[in-house]
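Entry for the shared binder. Reason: the reviewer on the internal report wants the predicted structure included alongside the sequence.
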Amino acid sequence: MIPDFTFEKTHQSGNARRGVMRTPRGDIQTPAFMPVGTAATVKAMYPEQVRQTGAEILLGNTYHLMLRPGAERIENLGGLHDFMDWQLPILTDSGGFQVMSLANLRKLDESGVTFRSHIDGTAYELTPERSIQIQKKLDSNIIMQLDECIRLPAENEEIERAMQLSLRWAERSKTEFDNAPGRALFGIVQGGDNNDLRARSAAGLVDIGFHGYAVGGLAVGEPQEVMFSVLDEITPHLPHDKPRYLMGVGKPDDLLGAVERGIDMFDCVHPTRAGRHGHAHTRFGVINLKNARHKDDPRPLDEQSSNPNCTRFSRAYLNHLTKTEEILGAMILSQINLAYYQELMSGMRIAIEQGRFAEFAADTRAGWAAGDIAVL
């Protein structure tokens, strides 16, 4: 019999939580960061390299995978784990955000959303039921309900309409999910920057009942302080014994601030995208390898780093790769960034276990603020 998905919170330091999610594909230590494998690949990385950074779960994108190569094709080829050779847990998003942000000629109603592919104009329909069916075909371990995500700022009437529709879609997603053994279904809290609507959304989702609860509709144009304000208000409304997932976030300081507010899971394309644009995340903060000050610098990025790529290559070489847009530069910096994100998450987990998360957060922010100029 396939074991059920479970979550256990093991430690707490302030509002920061330490725990473990157990799935048939393996355990996930939280707080956790999920690298994004949009189209069944983490850009510029082999699967084993992603695993070597410390990642225990990846995110796959329902919208992109349903367009190509197609959910049915992936199912016939053994599912997403075999297709991309990643045997650890996979979370798939519902596709709703990409439909709203990428698709052409979309039309949304109570049933779902119809749209034309941004790739070739082919018409598709995505309903709550179809989204769940696709995610099952992909063999996802953590499945997300279909929701409507709107950009901020927006009028309260529009925010409430989308929130209520997302709740109705949540019920239909739960029905279609049908307690699939060995899988988990997460609901998504909507409500924009309106705390009352967020609380109503959370209460409605808790009444429906999910394995975990995501906070959606943030990192969509609002300032960081607005995102943190929403998290301050919403996390007390979420069950303490279920994982909490902040979708599409973010940069290291976003992750640190969100864990401070009780969030357990994250995903974002930022670390690999930053790597492709010549930016390295380190304990000194962000280092822009395009900067001319690096072109004659023989030193590594960080002599004290445990990451071989931080000590193996000189800043001058990384500057050269970045300026000439060589693929190797994107590969090296993507690995450095993903490894730093996992190092940050590991540091947070240890600090929570030791009851010293506040000190860890202060020390980490101080390192970012000092920058790498001080070590020249």
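Summary line for the report: The first helix runs from residue 47 to 52.
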